[in-house]
Amino acid sequence: AKRAGWERPESLDHHQRDLWNVLRRMVFADGRLARIGGDSRVRYAYCQEYLLPALLYAADRSQDPLALELAERQVAWIARLIVGAKDSQVAAAELIEFAITIGAKATVPLPEVFRSSNPDVTLPMGEGAGMVADVLDSIDPEDARIDAIKAVLALNPNQFYELVLFSDVNADAVRDAVRKWGAMNGLKNINERFGVSIVGAAGVKGAVRDVFDRFQNEAAKMVRGKPQAFVVTGLAEHLGDAGDTLPAAVVEVDGIDPVILKTAGAAAAVSFAQDLLRGDTLSQRTNEAINPKGGNRYQFRPEGLQALSSRIRSEIRALLSLSRAA
Fold first, then answer.
1. What's the pTM?
2. SS3 for 50?
3. What is the pLDDT of residue 197?
4. What is the pLDDT of residues 136-180, one digit of tens each?
5. Cα–Cα distance for residue pair 103/107, rounded to 1 Å
6. How many Cα atoms are found within 13 Å in the side-chain-facing hemisphere of 92?
7. CB atoms closer than 10 angstroms to residue 61
8. Closest CA to 218 of 160, 153, 257, 136
9. pLDDT tens per residue across span 216-256
């Protein structure tokens, strides 16, 4: 309007300077609005799209140099998100960092992705505890699986997750990073609920037994007298007979695309554990992703896990579109 030479009505500016004096203290240094609400909308992304034009208006009307500085910083942040969006997992990590910056004691946005994509994974606090023991060769601190684990731990206060690794490379770094992240976000019992174990002389079977024993002890403190569910996942050659002598469900991951497994494997395994807590009937979503093999053995279904992965990725893209609109 200014460029076109239009005069704006005086009513438009009524109390705007007063409002700006309040708002300017509610924008973080990198240009993100400290707006943590969102009712039915996605937390932390809502209202960001309103900030940029408001900053430009304040720079023009109030002649406040801070407004233009914040606008430049917000544009730079948006540019970083767009670059990250080329890889949905990089973008998801950006959104987690976004949430931590805005609300250190609040739930991060990625659990909202899992809540809509996988609504069966949540039980009220204290209503039973589920453990997933994930047997892997090794893990990189940047592995996309870590974002998924963070999500299910934040989403469900009853969920435990243990990485059982053949290599101790990065083990301490991953354990410390997830626990630190959990503490920053106010996740209850995060040190007890997430751990990293190394396969020792007793092999996978011994490591899984140790995880099970620790889980029973810790879960008993949290959900006294309530049900517990133990799920072990990994390649068939790694698992052997691990879990067969335990009250556990063993899920083989053979034949699953590694990218899909990292994106959706944690969500599917946790959904399975929570179904077991509720009883013998598995939800439709779990049945789509897991195929019974007999006894306590199961196998991930490639098609079902692919569908779950697609739903999760589409929700991540939806979150990103809101963030880019800022």
1. 0.63
2. helix
3. 96
4. 999 998 887 887 788 778 777 888 999 999 999 999 999 999 999
5. 8
6. 26
7. 15
8. 160
9. 999 988 888 888 999 999 999 999 999 988 999 999 999 99
Measured between alpha carbons, how far is 98 from 109 in angstroms, rounded to an integer?
9
Tokens of 134: 């994930």
Q: Encoding tokens for residue 186? A: 């106010």
**Residue 230 to residue 246: CA distance in whole angstroms:** 9
- Within a 13 Å sphere around the CA of 321, how many CA atoms are in the beta-carbon half? 6
Cα–Cα distance for residue pair 237/33, rounded to 1 Å: 50
CA-based radius of gyration for the chain:
23
Residue 80, both tokens: 């970083």
Handedness of CA 305, 233, 121, 139 (dihedral sign): negative
Distances (CA, A) of 257 to 85, 262, 303: 21, 9, 10
Bin 269: left if φ > 0, else alpha if -120 < ψ < 50, else beta: alpha
